[in-house]
Amino acid sequence: MQSVTSTWWPAPAKLNLCLHINGRRADGYHELQTLFQFIDWCDYLRFTPRSDDLITLTPAIDGVANDDNLIVRAAQLLRQYSGYQGGVDIELDKQLPMGGGIGGGSSDAATTLVVLNHLWQTQVSVDELAAMGLTLGADVPVFVRGFAAMADGVGEQLRSVEVNEPYYLVVVPNVSVSTQAVFSHPNLTRNSVKIPSLELHPELWQNDCQKVVCQQHPQVAKALSWLLEYAPSKMTGTGCCVFGEFSSKADALAALDHLPQGWTAKVTKGCNRSPLLALLC
Question: Which of 161, 157, 132 is nearest to 144 (CA)?
């Protein structure tokens, strides 16, 4: 392993290969089934422990105060929970688009928890880290645990799964989608039947949020329509990113060659095991 100060630790993106909404609970939260798989498109973070108690992050993210940033909050949470006395300087190489439904902020927070637990030698268990992560965001625990998973309940019940690891072309429409607006929309499908062992039935995978998002954001519908010419296309999470599955990297790159001018896209590979875990072994 590289030295502590030179290691750039990955924070991978995720795709929701399906997102089925099974009902709305009395507390307003939605029951769902969703399948998380990592992709090898990552942010990268570098951590340099400090002897004092400062926690710094560079560069700052536009429009987000450091104390509100999930990375800083994750470091503060672990330090408070573990009683660790020192601090850390954190550098962020931001590669993932913000607000695209691929989990960049949640993954950054998870990598911070996992790596600082390792570097600070705080010996907090994975279960405890996942519970901490859940207080930061619903998607953080799956990144902490590091395995592709089916999520049930409101997304907190995780079960590790093995699914195919194809290549994906991920297209990033230039639009911001509000998760809250999607889940509160009156036309959202909320009555999908729960399917046992859903990971074994890819022919049944769908995204119940996709119709509403496409109605509200024509750019997402346009991206899905374009991608459909090359592969079955689907939206991840509540958007805005959409993806198509390819059997080879060459096929994905061939589709990328036809990307309309001004659009953004990335060829990535599905991973059932987070790239972060490989560096920790």
Answer: 132
Tell me which amino acid residue 279 is: L
* Enclosing H/E stretch for 160: strand 157-160
Full domain range(s) for residue 219: 167-271
pTM over 0.85: yes
Q: How many CB atoms lie within 10 A of CB 66?
A: 15
Of the candidates 40, 43, 139, 251, the residue annotated as catalytic is: 139
Mean pLDDT by 10 residues, the chain (281 residues): 73 98 90 97 97 94 84 98 97 94 96 97 97 94 97 90 98 93 95 96 97 97 98 96 98 98 97 94 72
Decide if 14 is catalytic. yes
Q: Is 269 a catalytic residue?
A: no
Q: Which of 127, 161, 195 is the last residue of a domain?
A: 161
| 246: helix, strand or coil | strand
Q: Report how many domains make up the chain.
A: 2
